[in-house]
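Anyone? Bumping this.
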Amino acid sequence: MNKKLSINDIANELHVAKSTVSFILNGKAKEKRITDELAEKVLKFCEEKGYKPNQLAKSLSTGKTKMICLMVEKISDYFFSHIAFHLEALAYKNGYKIIYCSTENDPEKTRELINLLRARYVDGYIITPPVGIEAEIKGLINDNLPVVLFDRYLPNVSTDYVGLDNYKGTFDGVEYLVETHAKKIALVTLDSDQSQMTERHAGYIAALKKHRLKPVILKVPFANDTETNARQCIQFIKDNPGIDAIVFATNYLALSGIKAINELGLNIPGDISVIAFDDHDVFNIYNPSISAISQPLDEMAKQLFKTLLDKLENRVRLKDVSRIIIQPDLILRGSTK
Amino acid sequence: MNKKLSINDIANELHVAKSTVSFILNGKAKEKRITDELAEKVLKFCEEKGYKPNQLAKSLSTGKTKMICLMVEKISDYFFSHIAFHLEALAYKNGYKIIYCSTENDPEKTRELINLLRARYVDGYIITPPVGIEAEIKGLINDNLPVVLFDRYLPNVSTDYVGLDNYKGTFDGVEYLVETHAKKIALVTLDSDQSQMTERHAGYIAALKKHRLKPVILKVPFANDTETNARQCIQFIKDNPGIDAIVFATNYLALSGIKAINELGLNIPGDISVIAFDDHDVFNIYNPSISAISQPLDEMAKQLFKTLLDKLENRVRLKDVSRIIIQPDLILRGSTK
DNA sequence: CTGAAAGCGCTTACAG
DNA sequence: CTGAAAGCGCTTACAG
């Protein structure tokens, strides 16, 4: 239980002012015209003693905590936990720590979380916003806190955004299915107003229109469990005979849907081709392996962090808003012809 | 950009001393014999103004940050991201925030992470320790910081631990396979010294011994990717003709292994029964669905957090170490007879 | 080039 | 019952 060393202790032991120590430690020795000799001596002493400045004290006086908040829909989801992993590496490399929290798409919960994090004075926010949280996000922006939205945006909120070209994802997916001679291409999606979902829907509709095909759509409630989704898919397929391809708007919908198709005794891709939006590492080992519209996770995380860091380090003015749209990859596997 | 209210502002506006405000806000009004009237007035004022105490300042003077560090092997893994989700709910309910980080099983990286978090003065640690980090964990304990290990423990470190009865998991799994008349039961596991892996191995061996069967074991390197694991499984099954059941020591090994079995044209469970250690939500929708030795995630998270909280709130003395062993559930699905 | 001093926003003995 | 004051460990004008 060695007592923690403070900057005072160091100043005393070395008989210099603590301001001098502080300047040296923060790389302002040159600027403050402190002799190299002294700087060297102080640095060496700190090194030897294993001195680590108290971040709390530092934060209190600078107003910067070097912490960022990652607020996702649900940290245990495949997509979000992978984004979290990639962001972590980038954050730590740049001296930031990440506090995560899950909104579970509940605006009320999200509001509380934002309030809690504000009291912690985190420096910036990366958020997948639920609909209904516009005012709080604007509140953050008004207080000059950098906010980057991702995965989905809020039409009325002007702030940085990093997301996928969802429209192109489903559009290309459908076009590929058309090329393989599918005639009745269904979409199974969530009943959701979120931008990424409406974009996926729009891409599907547009591609069908281009090829003069008719939409066949199942929308399931967000809160459904896997089993319920499977049941609804079975009913949907029965109700719409002749479906020969299905685009699933999320990876978990695809897994339920495949279960449904299996239970109906239909063959993939013989009877029905399948494409899932958002890749998943089990898709590769599934039998048959599942074709997917993939979101480049590391690229997304990279852009997200860069966008936030540019604001945090004042390389970009707060008011200058960027929208980064990442292109999806259509990965063809065994579930399509 | 409304200026943040401080306790000083409140004291001034209400013409009371800031210590009084502080006492009231911290529920010490009674104790300090402050009139209900005054307390009421202050509370109401703070409520109206939306005053949120600055956590940084609070932390600096109390020495408590109300933050805990969750250090797992990899935040994007199914098991860890789900534990993270459950822990989050418990932490927030109790006023704590969580900083996560991934060790990637690298002692060097873990060492750095611990140092970084120490400079942040987090109040407690929940860690899945890589082998080789004993000294640093002891360092935390010596400085009276509560540490709860989970998933695996370090034999030489005496601290709280929450983990699964891994031995029982594989033991019961093997016994069930024996009951279904399997004669040549293989184990596919990681080449790892971690306690959870050696326990799973031991349970397998013990059950075989009891039934006078011979072990057939494949150990794959930790760093392998899915594809490589599948290749090695194929070779392993070819090299050991007559395997009629396989226990996989992790869920991802199971997924690779199933791919291998499929590629060999063997039927599950007709030719080979399969049990996976650690459930995964795709197991349920796989075809056939996969039997699993399941770790109760929410129970585990609950015990983990309770153990840590008991220490943080001084309900249990730091020196009193607990070991909580959670019982696995054997979930039988389509991949076993 | 260096030092004394104020300040960040809290908590908590201590005195009255 | 309440208030003035010191302290947590830093940063940063300011003076010399």
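Late reply, but here is one note on the structure posted above: Chain B has a mean pLDDT of 94.
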